Amino acid sequence: METGKLIFITGGARSGKSSFAEEYAASEAEIKAGSLHYIATSRPADKEMIQRIKRHQEDRKKSRNTWITWERPMELQAMEPHFKQADVVLLDCLTVLLSNELFQYELTDHPRENRHYEKKVYDAILEGVFSIVKTVHTLIVVSNEVLTEPLIGETVVRSYTKILGNLHQEIVKHAEKAYIVEAGIPILMKERSC
Amino acid sequence: MHVITGGACNGKADWVKRTYGLSNQSHIWISAYEKEPCPINLAKYDTRFIVLEGAEQWIRQIIENQAGEYNRDDGRALIKKWLKWERKNPVHQLIIIGTDISKGIVPIQQLDRTWRDATGWFYQDLVKESDRFDVIWYGINNQLKGEE
């Protein structure tokens, strides 16, 4: 069965990963003449967040492409019916989606008890990602580099780390291209050879 | 000695198992994540491979046992002892896995700061003595030292 392309883009905070992802998506959409979709995962919880969302919205408005924006803090699996085969979809970003999905559950201090939720969240997000990839021309997943600082105590953070690391591994494995963006410069870490 | 680092949950152990085909090779796997203490003398093992996983956790234990201090020469001495095993027999291959904990904000607690610094120094000392060094990023290796 024919399936769309999966592109993975990550980087630190303010590394320019979102801008790079938006440009990438726009040029892909131009080639295919499909629609451009943006899946926003943030919930406007505070003033800083509202401004941040606004800035991203303005950026997309300024671009010469027309974006269709979907506010989707959770349940990525339900998105797939909205897309067509020539479409390009940008998901920004995976870390926020994971927070929203994971913290709907009451996690405990016992790693064993959390495993059930970890699996549930991991499976749900991957199902969402791959159902979209199957439907569209290109899905671009944006995420964050957060796994290289000391893990101290907290069971909940361990759960989050584990799921995010496993999601990144699985997405990179199936990605046609994987990038890390450093201060605005994208570095190609993986390119599938044809 | 082959040194492997990379962020938490980036697939370092899986990469090692795959790369060395460990399921069909005689090996010992000692993991700090399974609460195993830091091995010092490896002489009793006679497998082809020894994998030591979670080096940063053992560094933390060393610091905790030294009243919060890290002496870099202790780390270097430990590496020398490990290498003794590898040099005993030409087929012996030592593999050290450590999680990169160097790239976040400076930790608030003194012990955590010492731990982060010591781990960085220990990795530098390991890599200096190594034949090969790879950084794993979500299952992909980036070889920074060694042949092939």
**Looking at CATH, which topology of chain B would you report?**
Rossmann fold
Q: Report the principal-axis shape of chain A.
A: globular
User: Which percent bin holds the helix content of chain B?
Assistant: 25-40%
**Low-pLDDT segments of chain B:** none
Low-confidence stretches of chain A: none
Kindly estimate the percentage of residues of chain B that lie in beta strands according to DSSP: 15-25%
How many helical elements of chain A? 5
Q: What's the tally of helices of chain B?
A: 4
Query: How would you sum up the global shape of chain B?
Result: globular
In total, the number of domains of chain B comes to 1
Primary descriptors:
heterodimer; A: 194 residues; alpha/beta; 5 helices; globular; B: 148 residues; Rossmann fold; 6-stranded mixed sheet; 4 helices
Summarize the topology.
The complex is a heterodimer of chains A (194) and B (148).
Chain A: E1 5-11, H1 17-32, E2 36-40, H2 47-62, E3 67-71, E4 88-92, H3 94-102, H4 111-135, E5 138-142, H5 155-174, E6 177-182, E7 185-191
Parallel strand pairs in A: 1-5, 1-6, 2-3, 2-4, 4-5
Antiparallel strand pairs in A: 6-7
Helix pairs in contact in A: 3-4, 4-5
Chain B: E1 2-6, H1 12-20, E2 27-31, E3 49-53, H2 55-65, H3 72-88, E4 93-97, H4 110-129, E5 132-137, E6 140-145
Parallel strand pairs in B: 1-4, 1-5, 2-3, 3-4
Antiparallel strand pairs in B: 5-6
Helix pairs in contact in B: 2-4, 3-4
How is this structure best summarized?
The complex is a heterodimer of chains A (194) and B (148). Chain A is an alpha/beta fold and 194 residues long.
Your description of this structure?
The complex is a heterodimer of chains A (194) and B (148). Chain A is of the alpha/beta class and 194 residues long. Helices cover 44% and strands 21% of the residues of chain A. Chain A is built from five helices and seven strands. Chain A has helices spanning 17-32, 47-62, 94-102, 111-135, 155-174, and strands at residues 5-11, 36-40, 67-71, 88-92, 138-142, 177-182, 185-191. In chain A, strand 6 and strand 7 (185-191) form a beta hairpin. The longest helix of chain A has 25 residues, at 111-135. Chain A is globular and about 50 Å long. The two termini of chain A are 17 Å apart. The model of chain A has no long low-confidence stretch (mean pLDDT 91). Chain B is an alpha/beta fold and 148 residues long. Chain B has a six-stranded mixed β-sheet, sandwiched between helices. In chain B, helix 2 (55-65) crosses helix 4 and helix 3 (72-88) runs parallel beside helix 4. Chains A and B meet through helix 5 of A and helix 4 of B.
